[in-house]
Amino acid sequence: MRGIGKHFGAVKALTDVEFSVNEGEVVALIGDNGAGKSTLVKVLAGVHAPDAGTIEFDGEPVEIASPADAQDLGIATVFQDLALCDNLDVVANLWLGRELRSGSTLDEVGMEERTWTLLRELAAKIPSVRIPVASLSGGQRQTVAIARSLIGEPRIIILDEPTAALGVAQTAEVLNLIERLRERGHGVILISHNMADVLAVADRVVVLRLGRNNGVYNVVDVTSETLIAAITGAVDGTGKRPEAGKQRTEEPPESREAKIIPMPTGPRRMPDAADGDE
Ligand SMILES: Nc1ncnc2c1ncn2[C@@H]1O[C@H](COP(=O)(O)OP(=O)(O)OP(=O)(O)O)[C@@H](O)[C@H]1O
Ligand SMILES: [Mg+2]
């Protein structure tokens, strides 16, 4: 995505934003509340039409005018509310609207087999695929939503705050799942406020501040402190303190409070889902 601009009335949600993701790469998109993260991924998902800028896919310019266009290109989104049907079982949720058929009836066996194959590949811990998703835990529901996005083999998967509502063990499960997605060669865009999650799974971190780029960092050579400084504007995109008066004068609305969770101290490691047995 190059030079992306988007305004809602007088609100400039995005100004001249650059963003990219490669195959087999996890890119974290971070920034304060209202920084434009959701708007940027919604432009990519065909929800919002940008006012300015271009999008290239495999080096070719593309126009993503609708969610259907995004789906055709292989861009899948897992929205924060997951949008699952609580009363339906796991299989029905995965195949909703794209059910497999054999003749005039639903191919229940085929759908169930492919559901298990997919969940196994993701190393997902779902007790049964024939129970309503209402009875699954938060992490398991997140897994089902991610598995559903994988039907149709997308190239890019967008995860908007996948761990925001999850506990320690469930967060570890979802982070492991993100690693599986990278191994499978998907490009993953991860929106998160949790620096520990970002540093644990991302390869690259793109920071947005007040609707503009404010730095791109490789996870191997960045600390949680630097990221937080970029989010809050204590440093600009080059890692330097901005000159007085050069920064945008506009301040984020006061009602918005930062919800940045700092990196815990101690050695960094991938949390192991197997640690937390439920
Ligand atoms: N549909 C919309 N109509 C009007 N304004 C909008 C709309 N969507 C977003 N905005 C505005 O655009 C700006 C960026 O919002 P966006 O949702 O992209 O932020 P965000 O980085 O995802 O924040 P958060 O971390 O709180 O989810 C905000 O000022 C927001 O009020
Ligand atoms: Mg958002």
Automatic annotation (TrEMBL):
Cross-referenced PROSITE patterns: ABC_TRANSPORTER_2 (PS50893)
SUPFAM superfamilies on file: P-loop containing nucleoside triphosphate hydrolases
Residues covered by region (Disordered): 236-278
Keywords: ATP-binding, Nucleotide-binding
Biased composition (Basic and acidic residues): 238-259
UniProt cross-references to PANTHER family, sorted A to Z: CARBOHYDRATE TRANSPORT ATP-BINDING PROTEIN MG119-RELATED, SUGAR ABC TRANSPORTER ATP-BINDING PROTEIN
Domain ABC transporter residue range list: 1-235
UniProt keyword annotation of Nucleotide-binding present: yes
Organism: Microbacterium pumilum
InterPro entries the record matches: AAA+_ATPase, ABC_carbohydrate_import_ATPase, ABC_transporter-like_ATP-bd, P-loop_NTPase
GO molecular function: ATP binding
Pfam annotation, one family: ABC_tran
Protein name according to UniProt: ATP-binding cassette domain-containing protein
Gene3D superfamilies, sorted: P-loop containing nucleotide triphosphate hydrolases
CDD domains reported for this sequence: ABC_Carb_Monos_I (cd03216)
